[in-house]
Amino acid sequence: MSLNESKRILKNRKPRVNAKTSSVEAEDDKKTKVGNKIDTKDIRNLPVSLQRGKSNHKWLAMMTVLGALLLKLLNEYNNRMKNKDTFYTHNVDAFLQYSKNNTFLTHLDGHYKEYPFELYPENITFMGSEYIKYDVEEAFLYTWEEYYFNNANVDKIDYIVEALDTKLLMFNNTQSNNHRVKLEYLIQQDLAIIKYAKEFGISPSVLGGLLSSYNLFENETLLKKSFPDGATILNEQILVIRNNLHSKDLQENDDLDIQFLNEHIVSASGVDAKNRSVKHQDLSSKELNINDIYLKSKEYHYDNSIVNISHFWQSVYDIKINNTKSVNSTIQLRKKTKVKKSNPLNKLRYIDISTQDDAVDVSYCKLPSSLLTVLTKGYDETEISKNKNLFDDVPDMKDNYGYAMELVRSCYHIFMESKVPLNKGGVPDRIIFMDAALSGTDFDGLILSKYGSFYFKPSTVDILKNDDILESIYYAFYASKSKTFHLWIFEIFQHYASLLDECQYDKLWFSHTLKYLYLSFLNDKEGIDHKRVVLTKNGHLYPTTI
Fold first, then answer.
1. Most CB atoms closer than 10 Å: which of 142, 213, 350, 507?
2. pTM score, two decimals?
3. Which of 412, 544, 423 is nearest to 488 (CA)?
4. DSSP 331-381
5. How far apart are CA 92 and CA 89, in angstroms?
6. Are strands 430-433 and 447-448 parallel, antiparallel or unpaired?
């Protein structure tokens, strides 16, 4: 083929037909020709193909934010429902505001000069609940110093043993240097007295305090390091009591005390657990399962025939059916508070076990403590929902839980409506609810409560002691984690703070009431785990593994 022929063929060849460019690609080509300086933050400056992807990511981000917002609103709603009773206390920021003020209990370090060392002013920077924890420590030290240093003729050994585990708990958790050195000095003094107590004898009634404190010395690293001979000193006294126990003493001590003493003797002496019934026949007591331990830790029920957990539930059923009554309170609710007609918050349920004029002993507030202890087995509501199989043996769980909470609220009303100067000691002697038939001289010596829910006979004894109302609210708070109950406990603490200079102190004030107040304001890492520890009726700590 000639050269001219080749040129002719190439010249006459039809051009190749290119694929039709899509509108998207055409738009992309157009944008790429604009230049390199493209504002990619503006989606309109991106290629159309990327605009579509960018749009998808944008919608995904919007849905994520919306989901997070809905979750936040749901949590806030649940918290409002959990704290629906906060109309009792209008100031929900009470902890924070209290910590910002120079309170009655703060900066009392120089009040007593009996300490053989110098105390230096502290710059207290705690806020909220931590500050109240600090002030509860102040309340303990203030009242203990008043009792210990100014009552030379009082038999101190029972007080010392009963209060020791409260001191240990505070020493182990305090954030105040002055409190720590004070508590260390007081604990060393207590150990010295207990060490030589065998010279004049020590009552079996303090067995619970010795066992509780021994357990803390053995299991808390800081206490073991700070007081290396503490457990040894207490063990010597426990053995002395054990060797001197008689049948009468065994009857005076609770089953839980004797059971824990049994286990202590076994572990402290190294005796094989299989042989303990042979070695310690004089301390024979039946084995307790976990439900019995929770039941025995309170040891207070209206039916004296209760011997096991089945009898307890039968007793609760009988009390609910035959002894539980309701009365209306005229408390003024806040306008924004919506109350369901099926469960009005101004209707109080109480237990009437007397036969004369419907006079009620405030001790009925011990029942919700026992009920919540046995019901929850030391778990809170969240943990219970995740471990429902552990509560198959609990009858009518939801109904009994609600019943206990209603009794707790009525107990709070007894405290709240009876706060008058004439009622010394904080808790009235007797309560007569408004549905009782009273006339004439029946009203003599009675005071109408703040909201007219009941009449009460004020306590005339100016002694601070154990507080069953506080105990019941504490267990309600531990189980529900509701801020409402926390505020109620705070209100009780403030009330006691105003009485410290006016009252004397029973030993259970140190072992029971102050311990419950202190535990209420510890964080989760500092507090006790009620699945592993029970509090006895005197406020002493026993492990559930006995």
1. 213
2. 0.79
3. 412
4. PPPPTT----TTS-TTEEEEE---SSTTEEEGGGGHHHHHHHHHHHTT--H
5. 7
6. unpaired
Residues of the chain short of pLDDT 70, as ranges, are: 1-58, 76-92, 102-113, 151-155, 198-201, 246-252, 269-287, 299-305, 331-345, 353-361, 424, 434-439, 546
Q: What is the pLDDT of residues 183-231, one digit of tens each?
A: 999 999 999 999 887 666 677 888 999 999 999 999 999 999 999 999 9
Q: Let me know if 77 is exposed, middle or buried by CB neighbors in 10 A (0-12, 13-18, 19+).
A: exposed
CATH of domain 94-543: 1.50.10
The Cα–Cα gap between 46 and 419 comes to 72
Non-local (6+) Cβ contacts of 25 within 8 A are none
Q: What are the tokens at 509?
A: 């004030």
Grouping H, G, I as helix, E, B as strand and the rest as coil, residue 327 is strand
Q: CA-CA distance, 33 to 198, in Å (whole number)?
A: 101
Integer Cα distance of 184 and 167 in angstroms: 9
Tokens of 331: 């408390």
Alpha-carbon distances, residue 111 vs 151, 179, 329, 433, 515 (angstroms): 17, 13, 44, 44, 23
For tokens 């029971």, what's the residue? 512
Write the secondary structure of 100-119 as one string of H (helix), E (strand) and C (coil): HCCCCCCCCCCCCCCCCCCC
| Beta strand residue intervals within 6-88, DSSP E | none
Q: Are strands 504-505 and 463-464 parallel, antiparallel or unpaired?
A: parallel
Residues in the chain: 546
Who contacts 117 (Cβ-Cβ below 8 Å, separation ≥6)? 181, 185
Torsion of CA 383, 389, 395, 400, to 10 degrees: 10
Residue 328 per-residue DSSP state: E
Tokens of 449: 């409560």
